[in-house]
């Protein structure tokens, strides 16, 4: 079933149930969501010329307006591309330059200082359900939407999800009705034909993220109440979990770390939480241990990417410690995995190579970028850019990004492997290992450390001694830098480029002073 049809069926089955709870506390029902989407679709088609196949970008925060506009555009057979509101104006402009949209729907603040030749439709953010896109919908009463030639066509493109634009040219992963249906089947599993019964959930990532853009159909199908936030704050999320008795906590590993550090954590009744599902960033072993103990819940690490449609591997909820703490689990249903070398050949079992996936959920290519598509999807396999190996139990163990790997004295160094060990140090809250140019070794590893509150910052000797029994000598860090927090990209991943640039600059300055 298509996104547009799923929204209509959800409205028919549970019209008065809450689909969205806005950050202000007011709610939007499934029935009203469906009606407003119809009215917006009429206005976009008749008054703004949006037609089948047009790409429309949404420069909107994660509010009910975004959801209504997305469903409305699906009704028109148009393509929706969200732009992360956390991007800077130059980054938003870069996305629009690649997207080349027929129309931009934006709030006044997010379109400020943005450069684009596309027409911009400025909208306001509502403070009640009847005000959602009210100016746009004015005069649509009684005007019917013209039917599409084949609204159920599985090849119809629905969404373009842009990857982080902080380095290089942003790329838009394309998903059609076929891929969205496959993602729904993969995520719901034996509930794929179920309607209703979904538990309330907190929107932990921006709507422009793959986690919302490709999964909205199954949120609608299960009748989930999606609770929105003005901004993610640990105290607010813990309060909402307790109030709504939310059984599953989703997001990225830093979210869990922040919740566990919140001073109100131990005063709250969080017994409703049964499962913790974290994707995006790697979950450090100590974090998994602490979260399982203090929440009293099972923890699953999900490895995926924008290009994979948010579906990849997972650790089992009942996994033993080796799987749960040090791997990203096994392929999920319908996902095939191979580890390949630089010549695109499978590597021997247990060797490190590039993690490649093949699945019906993966993107069909990059928007307006055939060269990048050909480089990423080869012979039907999606090349992730991540380094990994598969152990003798079939578990996937990440070794870092291909572009993050550095070479010390002829040895390949994989930062993720080292970070997983250093995070077990009792004085380390978080750590990233990045290269620093070195006249003798070519590159050396620098441990950029965030100390754990209440502990003295670890010294280089502390870290090397701690890791000596688990890492070969050439993998041990050779410098340490202590900071208050690791920098993040707009996609809430560690900004390794900034850290690496700092080390390169420091090395150059040191050379200049000799």
In short:
Among the domains are: 230 residues, ANL, N-terminal domain (Rossmann fold), CATH 3.40.50.12780; 109 residues, GMP Synthetase, Chain A, domain 3, CATH 3.30.300.30.
Describe the protein's architecture and organization.
- This protein has 17 helices and 25 strands.
- By secondary structure, it is an alpha/beta fold.
- Among the domains are: 230 residues, Rossmann fold, CATH 3.40.50.12780; 109 residues, ANL, C-terminal domain (GMP Synthetase, Chain A, domain 3).
- Strands 6-5-3-4-7-8 form a six-stranded mixed sheet, with helices on both faces. The protein has a five-stranded mixed sheet with strand order 11-12-13-14-15. Strands 16, 17, 18, 19 and 20 form a five-stranded antiparallel sheet that branches.
- Strand 23 and strand 24 form a beta hairpin.
Characterize the biggest β-sheet.
6 strands, mixed
The largest sheet has its strands arranged as 6-5-3-4-7-8
Helical amount: 25-40%
* Estimated radius of gyration: 24 Å
CATH level-3 fold name of the domain at 1-230 = Rossmann fold
CATH structural class of the domain at 1-230: Alpha Beta
**CATH architecture verdict of the domain at 1-230:** 3-Layer(aba) Sandwich
Topology of this protein?
Blueprint: H1 3-13, E1 18-21, E2 27-29, H2 30-48, E3 55-59, H3 64-76, E4 79-82, H4 89-99, E5 103-106, H5 108-111, E6 120-122, H6 134-137, E7 157-162, E8 172-176, H7 177-188, E9 201-202, H8 210-213, H9 216-222, E10 226-227, H10 234-244, E11 248-252, H11 253-261, E12 275-279, H12 285-295, E13 298-303, E14 313-314, H13 321-326, E15 330-331, E16 336-340, E17 353-358, H14 370-376, E18 377-378, E19 381-390, E20 396-401, E21 406-408, E22 411-413, H15 415-422, E23 428-438, E24 442-451, H16 460-467, E25 479-482, H17 496-512
Parallel strand pairs: 1-10, 3-4, 3-5, 4-7, 5-6, 9-10, 11-12, 12-13, 24-25
Antiparallel strand pairs: 1-2, 7-8, 13-14, 14-15, 16-17, 17-19, 18-19, 19-20, 21-22, 23-24
Helix pairs in contact: 1-2, 1-3, 1-9, 2-3, 10-11, 11-12
């Amino acid at each position: 079933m298509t996104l547009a049809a799923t929204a209509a069926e959800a409205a028919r089955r549970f019209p008065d149930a809450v689909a969205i709870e806005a950050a202000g506390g007011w709610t939007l029902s499934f029935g009203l969501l469906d009606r407003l989407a119809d009215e917006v679709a009429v206005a976009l088609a008749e008054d703004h010329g949006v037609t089948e196949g047009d790409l429309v970008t949404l420069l909107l925060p994660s509010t009910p307006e975004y959801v209504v506009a997305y469903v409305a555009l699906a009704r028109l057979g148009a393509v929706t591309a969200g732009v992360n509101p956390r991007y800077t104006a130059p980054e938003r402009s870069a996305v629009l330059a690649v997207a080349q949209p027929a129309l931009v729907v934006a709030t006044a603040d997010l379109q400020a200082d943005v450069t684009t030749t596309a027409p911009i439709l400025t909208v306001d953010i509502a403070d009640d359900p009847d005000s959602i896109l009210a100016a746009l919908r004015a005069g649509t009463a009684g005007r019917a939407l013209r039917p599409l030639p084949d609204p159920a066509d599985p090849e119809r493109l629905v969404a373009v999800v842009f990857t982080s634009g902080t380095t290089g040219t942003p790329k838009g992963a394309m998903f059609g009705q076929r891929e969205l249906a496959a993602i729904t089947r993969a995520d719901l599993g034996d509930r794929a034909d179920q309607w209703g019964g979904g538990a309330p959930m907190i929107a932990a990532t921006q709507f422009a993220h793959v986690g919302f853009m490709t999964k909205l159909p199954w949120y609608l199908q299960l009748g989930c109440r999606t609770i929105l936030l003005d901004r993610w704050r640990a105290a607010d999320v813990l309060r909402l979990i307790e109030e709504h008795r939310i059984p599953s906590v989703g997001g990225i590993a830093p979210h869990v770390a922040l919740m566990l550090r919140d001073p109100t954590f131990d005063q709250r009744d969080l017994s409703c939480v049964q499962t913790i599902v974290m994707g995006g960033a790697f979950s450090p072993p100590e974090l998994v241990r602490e979260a399982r103990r203090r929440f009293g819940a099972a923890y699953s690490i999900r490895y995926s990417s924008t290009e994979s449609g948010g579906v990849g591997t997972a650790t089992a909820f009942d996994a033993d410690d080796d799987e749960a703490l040090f791997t990203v689990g096994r392929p999920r249903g319908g996902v095939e995995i191979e580890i390949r070398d630089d010549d695109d050949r499978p590597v021997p079992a247990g060797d490190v190579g590039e993690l490649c996936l093949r699945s019906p959920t993966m993107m069909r290519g990059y928007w307006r970028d055939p060269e990048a598509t050909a480089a990423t999807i080869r012979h039907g396999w999606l090349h992730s850019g991540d380094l990994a190996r598969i152990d003798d139990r079939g578990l996937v163990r990440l070794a870092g990004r291909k572009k993050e790997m550095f070479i010390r004295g002829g040895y390949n160094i994989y930062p993720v492997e080292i970070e997983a060990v250093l995070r077990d140090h009792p004085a380390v809250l978080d750590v990233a290992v990045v290269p620093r140019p070195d006249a003798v070794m070519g590159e050396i590893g620098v441990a950029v450390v965030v100390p754990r509150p209440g502990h003295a910052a670890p010294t280089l000797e502390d870290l090397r001694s701690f890791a000596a029994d688990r890492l070969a000598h050439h993998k041990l860090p050779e410098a340490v830098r202590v900071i208050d927090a690791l920098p993040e990209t707009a996609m809430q991943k560690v900004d390794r480029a900034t850290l690496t640039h700092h080390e390169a600059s420091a090395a150059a300055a040191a050379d200049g002073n000799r």
